[in-house]
Design goal:
single chain, about 290 residues, alpha+beta, 5-stranded antiparallel β-sheet, 9 helices, 8 strands
Length: about 290
Amino acid sequence: MTHATPIRRAARTGRYLATALHLAESSLPVLPLRAGKGPFGNCATCVDNACGGRPNMKTPGPCACPRPCHAWAAATTDPAVIESAAWASAWCEAAAVAYHPGGAGVTVVDLDNSAAVDWARAALPATRTVATTRGEHWIYRGTVRSVNHVREGVDIKSAMSYARWLGPGTGAMTDVPAAVHELVEQKPAAHPAPRAVTVPAPAGGGQCPHRSPAYLERGIAMAEQRITAATSAVHSTVYRTFLAVLSAHGRCGCLTEAHIGRLFSAAQAKGESPRHCTDAWSNAATALGL
């Protein structure tokens, strides 16, 4: 009995690794997921973007770090990386294999419930379909901008996103239809009026004193990435991220409206309303006594 867990873990690791290598052979960029379908967090080498090699989430590209710690940007088709020692522990802990749809030149319409599936059957052309635990993935040829909550129970996953691998599905893949492009365009990248926060500016004109002039920029970029990478519990992710930013920078006077606007924009791109952003920021500031 004492060996059951290691044996099961080894079998699971072997299964996921074999799946990942098979998908990579088919030019599908893959990455491991933790339990709960979340990506692996930043490794010690890349925390706060210290590696300098992770994309800023505004342009596609692979992570320079060999570890699977940057969500969609970690996805790869390189078997040497997939089988490397740096990825070994991730496969041991993995609960699923994911892939980067945009990197494979496809778009996933994620239908999260039966009502969303019924809508797709009435509104979208047939394409390759994969059953999920609660609904279906409809996979189209071509890429678009990824947007969550384009309508109730419907997310669009393509560029700068990832989807769980649940099998090859059935049916012939067709091109991304106009209806999907229209849904994406209905949710343009948000550019909200940022909510100003009143904090005492330190001597020195509000320069961030913590480590270096680049520290604040790295922190804001990291916060944007955390929000952008959220696939569930978006409300709490936004609040926790705002709390972390204010905890680090809320008292030194270095935050500007432009920084706050970037965070609000990232949150609204995930479906948060301006009111939710403002409330989350205000609640985080109150929790810290700002």
